[in-house]
């Protein structure tokens, strides 16, 4: 159940020096599990954990591969280790890695030129909500794009350098744009309303844009329609799994001699972690070219399975260890709170219903006994 027993492999090369910012991540040397774990622990112990995590994100953005390049298991192994080590660090690093992968894909598809500045720390803001929209329009000169309006759920908007953000081109169509968050024409909301006990340092706020210059990244629909959108969602789920693995490992390491009920808990946790490892290895193989279904259906399956594993591990750990670690172990209590909030990025029954709809749509009428 520990990281060392995971079947998500990590190679043995040492963590290399930080390469030039424009180097594509897919060609950088790999990093070891222990090097990433040590770097994440160092960031977690920093007086400014988010700042240290953003520095780590930039380094890993040059080091780790992008999904779908034949090394997805390596990437996911790194994400699981981050989740196992510290969820604030993992939650800070993951969007930068997602943005780096999006930019690599956009460059390969011919949508970005060599003069595109990809330096600094990045986020990805694609959520929608009530209270207004972020809209894209042509500038007065007609040769550029500007953004105006409101965008909710922009994590660390006041700490990042840049972001990839979705904006409405019309009533039904969204495009992806790169923005500079240091520009005075974009304003993050006050983060004092963020009262979460989980991930308290990773504040999510709205941003307001007023004539903000923006650079399109791909045509309309490209961001949402590309396979990488599904791959990025699976990467988040791998972090949930890594955190669940750490909680299961803490139950396993208890010093009290197990009775039959404790052995039951250990067996349940072993089955959950083993099944998660096995599922993620199979999913990584599919992402790297042996797809048995659509990327969207695979992502729904992976995210649902990781979310269910996380929720079940939390339940079993509560039953196995009782209130003591939740009340007296600061690190454990924080990990539990962090994971409970983070895993709510999965939309529970709604995502399972979406999976069911995808299954139904993929089933031929003859396989349904001729029923429509």
Automatic annotation (TrEMBL):
Residues 1-44 are annotated as: Disordered. SUPFAM superfamilies: Acyl-CoA dehydrogenase NM domain-like (SSF56645). The keyword Transmembrane helix applies. GO terms for molecular function: oxidoreductase activity, acting on the CH-CH group of donors. The chain crosses the membrane at residues 229-248. Keywords: Membrane, Transmembrane, Transmembrane helix. This is Acyl-CoA/acyl-ACP dehydrogenase.
